Fold this sequence. Notes:
globular
Amino acid sequence: xxxxxxxxxxxxxxxxxxxxxxxxxxxxxxxxxxxxxxxxxxxxxxxxxxxxxxxxxxxxxxxxxxxxxxxxxxxxxxxxxxxxxxxxxxxxxxxxxxxxxxxxxxxxxxxxxxxxxxxxxxxxxxxxxxxxxxxxxxxxxxxxxxxxxxxxxxxxxxxxxxxxxxxxxxxxxxxxxxxxxxxxxxxxxxxxxxxxxxxxxxxxxxxxxxxxxxxxxxxxxxxxxxxxxxxxxxxxxxxxxxxxxxxxxxx
Length: 251
């Protein structure tokens, strides 16, 4: 069995790591380079850096930050926010990123997924999906959760896979920052439908939530932010807990 991955996520705004609840009410969580280095040393499997206002404000992604992260961490990291073209991806990879995450741009121009995959390989292209449950179905959102779309979670994730995505990063907007557990039912449904890895995001509050997301939710990786940023759950402690509960992780 492939090892399950633990991935700290660093949402970056104005050069600082921030964390919100349900995509709003952000607070400062520290220096993104220093945090990344700490997670790398603690045994995180990967990192995700998201420029959370890039798409909304129409800016390009933070190439300088990517270069500084690459010089300070020894694990793979993904960068997202403000990516609109294959050229943007090339710039970020040249700066040191291992993968890119596209969300709004993927929905607006789905052909970008295939363009990235063909040029750099599917493993480079992570399609991120922000979705909210409306009582009947999961609705996909654009621009950091600001704009609802006609897309539905399962059908869009499947299309992204067929267009060449290497992974799906699904964030439940309803669970984001509230620490009550991941959207395991939706994740399990995605896992049953897709053949590519699924990264779960939104809802981590305790070690048991990671156990649930890997067993009930069938996720391949779990992403979290505030519990790591504010040292609520040390990564080595989390990995030992998972290992003790028969979840394969890298130590």
